[in-house]
User: Fold this.
Amino acid sequence: MENSTSKCPFFHGTNTKTEDTLNHWWPNALNLDILAQNDLKRNPMDPDFDYKKAFSQLDYQQLKADLTTLMTSNPTWLKADHGHFGGLLIRMAWHSAGTYRKSDGRGGSNTGNQRFSPINSWPDNAGLDRARRLLWPIKKKYGDNLSWGDLFILAGNVAYESMGLKTFGFGGGREDIWQPEVDTYWGPEHEWLAATKNRYANDKDRESLDSPLAAVQMGLIYVNPEGVDGKPNPMRTAIDIKKTFGEMSMDIEETVALIAGGHTVGKMHGNGDASQLGEAPEGADITAQGLGWLGKNGEIQNAVYSGIEGAWTTTPNQWNQEYFYLLLTYEWKLTISPAGANQWEPVNIKEEDMPLDAHNPNIRRNPVMTDADMALKDDPEFRAVSDKFFHNPEYFNDVFARAWFKLTHRDLGPKNRYLGPEVPQEDLIWQDPIPAGNKDLTKTDINELKTLILNSGLTASELISTAWDSARTFRKTDFRGGANGSRIRLAPQRSWEGNEPERLNKVLSVLEKIKHEFNKDISIADLIVLGGSISIEKAAEKAGFNIEVPFTPGRGDANEAQTDAASFDVLEPVHDGFRNYMKTDFDSAPEELLVARASLMGLTAPEMTVLVGGMRVLDTNFGDSKEGVLTNRPGVLTNDFFVNITDMDNMWTPAGKNKYHIIDRTAHKIKWGASRTDLIFGSNSVLRAYSEVYAQDNNQEKFVKDFVKAWVKVMEADRFDIH
Assistant:
């Protein structure tokens, strides 16, 4: 019998699966998709939509009142544990923010990415689909004035406040993305909760966690609540906790406060057979409508999320000291939950210290602890802090409130990005505070400064390289780094190898002299950027193009007291393909490292291309290297790099590790040297297409204009006061 199902004639052959077919056929091909992350074509908002303006029109107090009402509401489809949804919404906010890692600034709550795969379907996030659906009526009411990212965190704040905690504050400003973050590496495993040895160089050395990862297993936020690889051992779990929380720049007090404060409210769910649950949201049937982990008959209200069953405290809907009282007063024994998970329960507990059942007030249950909780009791360093918090409740409340604020705002960037009436006035060191600069410089002032810089004796290469090095630390992921603040003057940046300290000190010395001699207030940060701008203008002029590089004054100079030097090591440029620099050998190819840096800086593939081509001809390579300077006119802003990278009269031959010779096919003579980073612009089909655009005879002016535009984007990426 013939199959009665027909294929749509115009749709036949279209690939709508998530498999990357190009990567399947050519696994070693350079993947440029991460430079197209958050393509505007996927964004449903109008092109002129301004979230900052929309948020300012929000009825903020009414929003908080609505969220407070939601905490104890009784929707038809979901029951609240202990009559309060606070624990669920706090877990949602925590797990939204808790993916942040300092190494590359990725993760966190800044984009509302918990709505998308893979995070929405991580085992550790089981049940949080309910929390997001619970918030839908709020999001529906306030619409575009409130992003999902802001709603997640504010809901957690209000949950704590409704249970008695005085929070430290709240700042809005998280703009939502509209697709999964393909540029985030979550680990090498291809299965959930795979053995931790997959992401450790040495499984016995728990400090050897593969950078930039922070969680110990695929699908977890931090550590396995049952113990390392699911095997209870509080002392070994303590080592993992210190590592994973350290990857968020949390100290010991902050770590203990966050664990204790997070476990003071709510409960865990393991009252059932996890094998009977359906797929996670991304794998569930279409009838589940985006929900996951449903029961056999599609029921939403089930009791298996983490597999551990029970509440930590006697009062899971109140903020108090019960957590430390129970943890430190009683002895605990290892037991198994109804779902088969390892958990700890107290020995000989008093009846009054047993929490009521989450839905039946006539039954009392044992409180429970995870392996991570037991680590706070057994590890001497954690125990000392736990005892301190137990005996100083007000101190604990303050430390937790501040740590919670740091956890939920770390990836939002400097304080001048925060929105709303509850932004704390206090400057916090992890916010990388910067004093305001002078925005009142006139055009005459700027021209005078340009003249002083041009007559200073500094070369164009020195000025452009210094400006680039100052600005390239910016990370779009968590809005850290950049030229504003001129922290390139301070430790540790001043001594970073990639910043060429000898050249840097020479430039800074001259700019400091100009600053002191100028008759108006001018920051070193502005002088660094202006020095690069005027040098590019002169290089364009030599190429026959009269163009002004836009410059907006107002950058400030941070001081040592405003700089958490220890937290800046993650910003060190240990590789920078824009200046043909690598501090050491890496497992990844140089061109992959270039794309990774461009992604962190928020650049597109065309912007990356034009910047590399321009930086090469401007002779700004690290250490004055001539590799990739494919021009006979170094220092002139020409399109020569692209002309020569696409010239078929040239041959390309290896000349050592990451080194190549460009040879004239006719004369058989070496013309130039180049690196893999240079050659990729002729070998990769997409990058070659961009290179050919800039190599065209009639696009020399376009190249100059596009380079200037991309350059200004880099120089102003951290100017949140003007964007």
About this structure: The chain has four domains: 51-162, 196-410, 443-572, 577-710.
